Description:
By secondary structure, the chain is α/β, with parallel strands linked by helices. It is built from 15 helices and 20 strands.
Amino acid sequence: MAERFQSHPYDVLILGGGVAGLAAAVGVVEAGLRPLVLEAARQPGGRARSFYDRQMGEILDNGPHLLIGGYHATLRLLEKLGTRNRLAASPTVSYQFWRREAGWYGLNCPDWPAPLHLLAGVMTFPAFSLRDRLTTLRLGPALCQSRATLEKKTVTQWLHGAGQAGTVFETLWAPLCLATLNEPAGSANAALFAEVLSQSFFHNRHNARPLVPTVPLSQLIAEPASALIEKKGGLVLCGERVKSIRMERGFVVGVTTGRWDFSLPPALISALPYDALSKLVPLWAEKAGFARLSSAPIVSVHLTYDGPITLPAPLVGLPFETSQWLFDRSLQHPDSQEGAGRISGVMSGAYRESHWSKKKLMETVAADLQRLLPQRDRSRLVGARVVKERRATFSPWPHSSELRPGGQTPWKNMRLAGDWTATHLPATLEGAVLSGEAAVEKVLAFLADDG
């Protein structure tokens, strides 16, 4: 690899091999240029990566991800990578939930034009009273409030003001907010959640359809992206943490890692996390505001049982339990250890749970599963793995969008990418891909003018 790097003539240097950096690199090679991607970890993919767990004897995702039909940029990327067919798609918008008092219930929307499909789904939502169902009609006008107004409010303040209180809020909107923003509704940015609801339920009837990966995440994005990049003349270098960036006269003139010095990059895209970039350019990070962003944690607990466990859907929401969502991992391992039950619990906005012991987290998810499926007590827990991402995303609090920079930087040959930049979306795969695409567009324009 060292020999390959030393002789590699790159056109664009990309810092960070997460989804944003990989999406940018794919865009660069599509334009006929050669990217060099520097990734600090031992493998690319960022939070959307997988690893082999020796104890469990299987490949695990760092954290389970759900895609939706409205992830248009992400789905375009998967088409380019040849992995679009590795997603299991629901034919309609359908989400299954469970709560102790009500048992199983679902939001099942017919294949009608948006937003009529949402209204029809809500009207048959068994967890709602007739009054709750009718208040949903007020959601459309509430989405028309200005972004500046919503930026100042929490999701709870906004939705309660729009009549979305009580059961409709607790059983549907609050869980969706926590899942998509990685922040509880009481402290989450209303503008971001309004954008999620608008794009998911009000633009196209297919946008909110759940799409579940049937392979580990690295096989969905990182591995095929790296293969495509290198096939077309680019290179992805892992284990290369950026130590410094040198600037002169308005340009980036050098980047140093622990082993190498990269001088005079023609163009550069930083797809680093905001906290990593803040350490490299502290004065600008403070001036631009992103040095003041905070982090929100996610905790994932992977469990394996020696007997089959069947959920009614690949993804089940538990709005009032610690395990907010349960994923059925058997979709990713249809041929291995037939009969084993594989369930993963996900806790978003896990400010409390990220400080719990691994033993407590495993016992908590196992207990939630026992309540959900009491008949599964014949199956014995034979493996468990806890993954804590304490800095999984930026904290999407009110006014946080004011701290998210666009793609421009003070240096003419450098652009930004990352799901934490000003995408108007929360920290999602879609935001990461969109930011990478936008950075490539600006870099290509710069190289064309410079040439």
